[in-house]
Design brief:
Elements: H1 3-17, H2 26-52, H3 56-65, H4 70-78, H5 82-104, H6 107-121, H7 125-145, H8 153-173, H9 175-183, H10 190-198, H11 204-208, H12 210-216, H13 225-237, H14 240-255
Length: 262
Amino acid sequence: PPVAAYLMAFCQFVARSLPSIFTDNYVFEGFAVFCGIVYLLGALTWNIAGFVKKRPVTGMIFGILWFFMPQSLYVLFVDGNLPRSVIMAVFPLVFLFVNEYLRKGGVKNFIGTVLSFAFICACHVGYTGMVAIAILIYLLVYRLCCFTGMNKIQKSGKRDLELIIALLCGFAFIGVILFPSLKGGLASNTSNASQAAKDFFQSIFITLNPVGKLKNGFSVSYFGIVSFLLAVFGTVAGKKRARAGFITAIIIVFLTSKTAGP
């Protein structure tokens, strides 16, 4: 899928168009522009989420800090994975539309889910599939947390089905570029695809251990013991709707452990 490649090409074009600012290597200077766009994109999505949830200060704080989270820095500067960096910047907006549709429904939230999911799918199909799995886990946990009786299960189940259809529409929306990407790359190379899948799994002690993070620097993926404890606290003390997100985070941490991997 071409979005990240086109975005990087645009960044190099910007660097070439401003010789008074960028004078030497357009590749590295284009990457600097790319980092700035990723930062602004992540800040924008969090500010939109804060505005919708009527918590603009919280959205602004998360927007400022999102780019500097250990995992965001690892993906961009160590792994050098440009599509995944863009997906991480846009992911809060995807989750916002999903959450709003579960709560309120509405055509606007449905279309927002389709378009935002289509955008990340146009960045990288494999990572989008993992986001889809995370959303499905969230749907299940959300309904278990918000279960109020059998009399409402049919209505809530209908909304869940509509949301799944929205995700499928997001895939179908970019079918023109989706099919070629599935015919080449990792999809056509089983050994490489298998190796890429293994890279997502590591020991849970590495994922949570801050001492290991300081020792290994950015060479490992890091969730953080503080974030994990906050998720546990949110699970225990949070309200029904908020609790679903914390539980989903805990489940994903365990599902990305080495024992759950291939």
